[in-house]
Amino acid sequence: MNHMKNINRLLYGINTMALLPSIAFAASTDMKKTDNRPNILLIAIDDMKPWIGPYGDSIARTPAMDALASRATTFNNAYCQVSLSGPTRSSLLTGLNPDHTGVWWLMGSFRKNNPDIVTMPQALKENGYETVGVGKVYHPLKDKTVKDDPISWSLPYIKTAGSPYALANGRVATECADVPDNGYVDGIIAEEAVKALGRLKDSDKPFFLGVGFKKPHLPFCAPKKYWDMYDRESMPVAEFQDMSSDPVEYAYHNSLELKGYSDIPPFESFIDTRHLDTYTQKRLLHAYYACISYTDAQVGKVLDALEEEGLADNTVVILFGDHGYHLGDHGLWNKLSDFEQSTRVPLIVCAPGMKEGTKSNSVVEFLDIFPTVCELTKTPEPQQLDGKSLVPILKNPKSKTKDYAISQFSRSCTENYTISTDTDLKGKAKELENDITGYALRDSRYRLVEWTKGFKTYMPFDESKVIAYELYDYDKDPEERHNVANDPAYASVVKSLKKKLHQHYAKSYASPMSAPIARTAAGD
């Protein structure tokens, strides 16, 4: 009997050992399935300024963004790096300032300028995430080798086709068509994003899903039901439509993007805005709000799908408008400036376990999004990033991570932002000697803009390259009516902010990310 017991024990041990590989495999599979790092849903919205409910806009109808903000932190003082889609998205998605990506124009490619740069989705992919994009996440480029940055994605980029117009009325700035949401491309993008969430929920990996909506970018086209939400006659045209006192000419442009549409009457931009009549201004404002509500509805579809798929409780949602927008203020239309209306952006972050329904007045930048994602997902920062994590503010909205934000604007943008071919930085050092750039430091009260010629912060600073200054005091002058840079009463403010700005230059120059861009510009 004892002999039989020993044999049974031996057989049991052998059988158990035989099962070990399958047990190990099952354990490995379970570990994959229990990877509880949060998913990331990044929602990019093109040309949307903070004219939405979470920012107190009393006109906007944005129930989806309002609902998101009720579970999130809304950053009241967030700023983009450049008020133009290509460079600001390159900066946000690499965590590097534009002088470290070499992208200052619409069609620049950070991947051509420095192939070793690691993007946010790329870093997540290399850290075990499934990554996929749909719509306009990066700015579209013609070169297929760098378009949508293929190395960023573990899954094929989701293509969406659709015309900017539903009617055949030529190249008009505004269009109201009685069509369903997918009559325009953003409706299709939302549908594809919802499908992507349905697939990603079954993955063994956490995911990064980038969703880029194209409205309210011109042309301002949206289904009729969104136009019907607003009364055109009540649209408030900008109160201040002139240049500031003691103006710096480099700060202004001729609103060329808007002028390219057939239904816009000729006007002289900031020189004489009376040529853009009130009726046209109200039509444009009505269209812009309609597009915002249309986009909000598409955001709502994606957020509803996140909830329905059971993913909402473990997904970080980051929603942003890629830069601000001029709608008649300063006599300007579109973007392309260092002014408040062009650089201040909506940024809403909803993260599991963080404060809900809060607002932060801390000054933050798009550069801060990448390190925030790294901290929330336990992803090592792949290179020296130029921003700071927002996690302390997500935990306590009264926290502060920095004293100021930096935006910049290249005057070459007004000439190059409409070009149809990719802009290659290689060998352009000589050309850049004539480029005029305004570096804007924005703290909680002031904006100092230092205009330079032939200077980028990957170079050592040379004060002889400074050609003009602007200073605005937002406590006293929120519409930027008065440039007080040369007012003796503000001399100490100018001195203090210049010191901080020059410290920023020195820090940027010392970064290891400066040298590769300098070499590319030199043609090496």
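Second entry:
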Amino acid sequence: MRAQFVLSEIGVGLRRNLTMTFAVIVSVALSLALFGGSLLMSDQVSTMKGYWYDKVNVSIFLCNKHDADSDVNCAKGAVTQDQKNQIQHDLRAMPVVEKVSYESQDEAYKHYKEQFGNSPLASSLTPDQMQESYRIKLKDPQKYQVIASAFNGRPGVQSVQDQKGILDNLFQLLNLMNRGALGVMAMMLIVALLLIVNTVRVSAFSRRRETGIMRLVGASGFYIQAPFIAEAAVAGLIGGGLACVALVVGRYFTIDHGMDLSHKLTLINFVGWDAVLTKLPLILATSVLMPSLAAFFALRKYLKV
């Protein structure tokens, strides 16, 4: 097969269906940009889970004298020293516990003032109104229920709170957004495939005389099909290249510069450039294979070779 012939046929096909080719490029670029963005979002959620789940604590809040009238769990009064000693002893004996730290009322008051010093409520609070607590770091954050079942309802314990529950709500929202992006990507992908099929059909119809002559002189099926498949692959590759550019530019201007989220949101451990660069070959490979396969199956039906 002469490469010059194939290249000339590709150029002719792209020029004859310029509008549809442009639509294919745009739809492939958008769908694959969303695909790459969804992969990066999944990596980001996994990175954040690993980072934050490693830092979450389970907090056991102890009863104070002000809780006796307002909380049924503290109906027997403030926690006693014996109860605190027993709680601490039991915590340190549990195999799921990695570290136990105690926060006094004065320390809790100091931390509250540091975080909410400008709140109107802060001026009316006193240290004796704050709750003592034990902060427990677990070897496995998933084992929160072991602590909750062991200490909920125990004398002197007002409540057991798991910070992981707060993070779970955030991650559920992020996963929902990611699934939404995947849904949009799937619809764009279907649109791109339909456009590719229609483009190949129009191109095959406009060159039916040439292909008929090629069949009469004994040209092989692959020889006739190759220019059409190559046209779709070239259009897809251009779209894939644009999708890669969109991911790189988006990462650069949202995280590193422009919005500069890496400095504004220091509590978030953003995915690095290595995560972006590893997605680009997959996007480019998909941008070539997807249109090529779509064109191949379209030609089997609409181009009798």
